[in-house]
Amino acid sequence: MEVSFMSYILLAIILFSMGIIGVISRKNIFIVYMSLELMLNSINLMLVTLSKHFGNMDGQIMAMMVIAIAAAEAAIFLSLIVALYKLKHSINIDDYNTLKQKGTL
User: Fold this and answer.
1) By Cβ atoms counted within 10 A, which residue in 11, 14, 69, 82 is the most buried?
2) Which long-range contacts (CB under 8 A, 24 or more apart) does 71-79 make?
3) Which 8-state DSSP code applies to residue 97?
4) Which CATH number characterizes residue 64's domain?
5) Is 77 a member of any domain?
6) Neighbouring-strand partners of residue 92
7) Domain of residue 81, residue span
8) What's the Cα-to-Cα distance from 57 to each of 48, 64, 66, 97, rounded to whole Å?
C-alpha cells in the first residue's frame, strides 16, 4: 500500500495548524516551544515531500540544514528558559515582560 503525495501534504498542513494553535492559545513557555518545533518539523516534512515528488535533492538538503539549525536553536532557547525561570520562578509567558523597553507601549 503506497501513501500518496497529497497525504503527506495534508499531514504537514495539519501538523503546522496544530503548531499555530499551540503557539496562540498556550501560556506555558514549554508548550509554546514544542508547538514551534512541531511547526518546524511540519515544514521539514513538506520540504522532503516536495523534493521526492519533483525528483531533486534540494528539499532534502534544506531539511537537513533546518534540523541542524534547530538543534542549535533548541540549546539557546532552553538555556534562555532556564535563565528566565531563575529570574521569575515561573514558566508562564505573561510573567516575562522584562525585555520590554520602557516608554514604548
Assistant:
1) 11
2) 74/37, 77/33, 78/33
3) -
4) 1.10.287.3510
5) yes
6) 28
7) 28-95
8) 8, 11, 14, 43
| Rounded-to-integer distance, Cα 4 and Cα 61, Å | 22
Question: Domains in the chain: how many in total?
Answer: 1
Helices (H), 1-105: 5-25, 29-54, 58-88
User: Residue 14 falls within a domain, yes or no?
Assistant: no
Sign of CA dihedral 57, 59, 63, 66: positive
Asked if residue 8 belongs to a domain, the reply is no
Please write the tens of the pLDDT for every residue from 26-68. Answer: 888 889 999 999 999 999 999 999 999 999 999 999 999 999 9
Query: What's the pLDDT tens digit per position in 63-98?
Result: 999 999 999 989 998 898 888 888 888 888 877 776
User: What is the residue-wise DSSP string for 73-84?
Assistant: HHHHHHHHHHHH
Whether residue 7 lies inside any domain: the answer is: no
Those residues with Cβ within 8 angstroms of residue 42's Cβ, 6 or more apart along the chain or in another chain: 11, 12, 13, 15, 16, 19
